[in-house]
Amino acid sequence: MTDISVTSPVERIARVIAAEALSINGEGGDPSAGSEVDAAWASEIDRAIAVLKTLREPTPEMVEAGRAAGGDPAAMWNAMVRAAIGQEETV
C-alpha cells in the first residue's frame, strides 16, 4: 500500500524549496533548519505551484508506469512520479 500524505503537494514542495536554500543538506548552512523552514515555506508557494504545473502532462514513461501500477490511484501517482525522477519502484 502506498502512504497517503496529509500535507498538500504545494506545501510539501514549498518546504523542500525552502529547506534546500536553508539546510546544510542543501545549499544552506544550517544543520537544524526546521524552524527556519517552518517560517519560510509560505514564501515559496508560487515556485511550488510552478513545479506542479510542469507535471500536468506526463511523459510516455510516466503513463506506462501508471498503467503498470494498476487501478489504485495512489499507487499510480507514486509510480508515475518515480518514473519522472528516474527511480525504480521500492514499494
Mean pLDDT equals 86
Could you list the spans in which at least 5 consecutive residues all have pLDDT below 50? Answer: none
Largest sheet: none
What is the number of E strands? 0
Q: Secondary-structure element order, as H and E?
A: HHHHH
Radius of gyration: 15 Å
How many alpha or pi helices? Answer: 5
Shape: elongated
Instruction: Quote the beta fraction.
Output: under 5%
From the structure provided, what is the oligomeric state, counting identical versus distinct chains? single chain
Helix content: 55-70%
Query: How many distinct domains?
Result: 2
Distance between the termini: 8 Å
Structural class estimated from helices and strands = mainly alpha
Q: How would you describe this protein?
A:
The chain has helices spanning 9-22, 34-40, 45-54, 60-69, 73-84. With 91 residues, the chain is mainly α. Helix 1 packs across helix 3. The protein is built from 5 helices and no strands. It folds into 2 domains: 8-56, no CATH class; 58-91, no CATH class.
